[in-house]
Design brief:
The chain has about 260 residues and is mainly alpha-helical. The chain has 2 domains: about 100 residues, no CATH class; about 140 residues, no CATH class. The protein has 10 helices and no strands.
Length: about 260
């Protein structure tokens, strides 16, 4: 792979990240993500083209609107850089082969879910339900995990969190796991298979426990409300499973199953 390919993919990643910011803002509000130009949420002015250059515009404007000088959330350049960085990583790992497109697209979905759930405690069906269908479909492409493994992963992913939701509701007498989390887990299982979806559950639970303890320690409001969305932790666990899953599973098989 020559440097020009990386430059093109990195630039396109920034552009896609800019679009993901539109999705993250508009989708929870029920707005059309494809129609209309971007505008400032504070003053409602439509942005000029030079206000929309990924990362560069944010830095040039000092993180503020070019019209009303309202502060622009750091999420905007962060999403752009994350999208570009993930695309470059998958390009490095898979070149321009099918896994590059599959994992880059899945990563975009995870980024959107991460930030929407973090802010709104919502995982949109517009992402997870088509995502389940997409996961089952790409399992059939050459080099895919296969329909059987994808279907089992879907059932294990969604079924595990559904069981956790039922048990949690009986134990705590309130909703313990949202339906969006269940559908997200089913989507990830369809893409990754049952072994990696179990791995991502372990990673998500571990990350969630550490972050929750720290968060509740420093936030009196959170200690009172105790509302911590699980979607961001599932997204982080999924990325760990994608990047390190094969190596961790191979390590487990070689050192624990073969030793017995």
């Amino acid at each position: 792979m020559d440097i020009s390919t990386y430059l093109i993919v990195g630039t396109l990643g920034l552009a896609f990240g800019s679009f993901l910011n539109v999705v993250i803002y508009r989708l929870p509000l029920g707005k059309n993500v494809a129609a209309g130009r971007s505008f400032c949420p504070s003053c409602k002015n439509q942005l000029k083209w030079f206000h929309n250059i990924p990362v560069i515009s944010y830095l040039a404007l000092g993180g503020r609107c070019g019209f009303c000088r309202a502060r622009i959330p750091i999420r905007y350049p962060l999403v752009e850089l994350l999208t570009s960085g993930c695309s470059l990583y998958f390009l490095w790992q898979y070149h321009l082969q099918i896994p590059f497109y599959v994992f880059s697209t899945l990563c975009c979905a995870l980024i959107v879910i991460f930030f929407i759930d973090l802010e709104h405690q919502l995982i949109p069906d517009w992402i997870t339900l088509p995502g389940i269908a997409a996961g089952l479909t790409v399992s059939l492409v050459p080099g895919g995990i296969g329909m059987a493994a994808s279907a089992i992963g879907l059932l294990v992913g969604g079924g595990s969190l559904y069981l956790a939701a039922v048990l949690g509701e009986r134990l705590f007498k309130k909703e313990a796991m949202g339906g969006g989390d269940i559908k997200m887990a089913a989507m990830l299982g369809a893409f990754l298979g049952w072994q990696k979806v179990l791995l991502l559950f372990v990673a998500a639970a571990a990350i969630g426990l550490v972050v929750s303890i720290i968060w509740m320690t420093i936030s009196a409001k959170l200690r009172k409300e105790r509302l911590i969305p699980f979607g961001p932790f599932l997204a982080l666990g999924a990325m760990l499973a994608i990047v390190y899953g094969d190596r961790l599973i191979q390590f487990y098989v070689q050192n624990f199953l073969h030793s017995n």
